[in-house]
Design the sequence.
């Protein structure tokens, strides 16, 4: 296969793994002129780049921002697109909600919600493990953390789906994608504005924090609070459901591994971690070159884009033995599953908790579940990968 790699290419969006293997082997610092962007595909290069001041997030991190130069408005700071020390100032107030201890305190709530959602699905005998189960739980919990009205959380989540929907041949957001994004951001800004006008900022949810804290010496503007709420909503509702659906699929394909887990649910966290490594939902994120740097004999120049191919790094044979094998006995020392460096995902502990509980409850209730392979469909996207449709059949009536 030639190095005809394009992140928006149909075959890459459908199945990138062969392209990533070629990049890692033959062009680890790969330049595409039309985007004026470099693509890093090896684990060690990505690990290093996320901790290096040679790269900046200030000009944008998403594929749209880096590849298509649709840069974020500088007057609307979002913690995922800031460098130190500004990044720490915007991220630190949220940290108490995402520590390992805070996640542990949420386990009873997460488990009760998982059982509430799963019970009628098991009684029905068939459901979608992504759409009907994992997505509902992750979105509801994310909405609670942000402070969104409960009756609006799922409709707002639907707008996220509409914004990220892609058709073959599409490069970047379409008019329909942009309309959904605008509608979502407008409603989030209205919610924040309504909360501010009511003086409703005494809780522990994120909107309360954004409204009562000063950032860089001033209250956070409504538009900035809405933009930060958007980022949390997208990440909290996308990554875990995709990873859970992936795990459901890969365990069904490997009945021996699934049986071992059903016999010993203490293996669930390892299966979830391996799923995140093997098929990372956050496919790629980017930076810009802050000052000239050389990598693999190539000169990366200040102002050029750099895409970090997270999913490729997690399949790098230099870091993981038999990297293309799904193995619940793997215990890696390092992983890129939640990123690395100052922008490592703030929700790592909560995400692991949600994934573990969702899988534990499903395997307890339906250890014999079967996936409909014809109905299982992967996300078609340059940004987020994994199974977005995961229909399963179970024995109905089992008590949870």
Sequence:
């Amino acid at each position: 296969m030639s190095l005809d790699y394009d992140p928006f290419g149909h075959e890459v969006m459908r199945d990138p793994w062969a392209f990533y293997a070629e990049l890692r082997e033959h062009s680890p610092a790969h330049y595409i002129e039309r985007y004026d962007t470099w693509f890093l595909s090896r684990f060690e290069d990505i690990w290093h780049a996320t901790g290096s001041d040679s790269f900046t997030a200030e000009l944008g991190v998403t594929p749209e921002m880096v590849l298509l130069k649709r840069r974020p408005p500088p007057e609307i700071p979002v913690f995922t697109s800031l460098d130190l020390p500004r990044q720490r100032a915007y991220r630190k107030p949220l940290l108490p909600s995402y520590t390992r201890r805070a996640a542990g305190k949420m386990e009873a709530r997460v488990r009760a919600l998982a059982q509430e959602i799963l019970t009628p699905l098991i009684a029905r005998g068939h459901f979608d493990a992504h759409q009907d189960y994992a997505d509902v739980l992750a979105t509801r919990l994310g909405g609670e953390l942000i402070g969104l009205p409960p009756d609006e959380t799922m409709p707002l989540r639907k707008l996220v789906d509409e914004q990220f929907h892609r058709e073959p041949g599409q490069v970047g957001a379409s008019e329909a994608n942009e309309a959904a994004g605008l509608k979502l951001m407008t409603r989030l800004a209205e919610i924040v504005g309504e909360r501010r006008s009511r003086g409703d900022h005494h809780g522990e949810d994120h909107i309360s924090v954004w409204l009562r804290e000063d950032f860089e010496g001033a209250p956070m503007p409504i538009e900035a609070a809405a933009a930060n709420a958007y980022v949390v909503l997208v990440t909290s509702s996308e990554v875990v459901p995709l990873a859970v659906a992936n795990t459901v699929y890969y365990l069904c394909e490997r009945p021996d591994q699934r049986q071992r887990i059903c016999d010993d649910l203490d293996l669930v966290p390892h299966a979830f971690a391996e799923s995140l490594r093997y098929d990372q939902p956050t496919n790629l994120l980017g930076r810009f070159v802050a000052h000239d740097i050389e990598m693999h004999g190539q000169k990366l120049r200040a102002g050029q884009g750099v895409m970090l191919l997270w999913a490729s790094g997690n399949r790098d044979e230099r870091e993981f033995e038999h990297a293309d094998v799904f193995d619940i006995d793997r215990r890696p020392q390092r992983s890129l599953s939640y990123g690395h460096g100052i922008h490592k995902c703030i929700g790592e502990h909560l995400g692991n908790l949600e994934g573990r509980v969702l899988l534990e409850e499903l395997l307890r209730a339906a250890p014999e579940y079967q996936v409909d392979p014809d109905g299982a469909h992967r996300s078609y996207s340059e940004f987020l990968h994994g199974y977005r449709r995961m229909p399963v059949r179970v024995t109905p009536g089992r008590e949870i």
The first strand starts at residue 29 and ends at 32. The two ends are 49 Å apart (CA to CA).
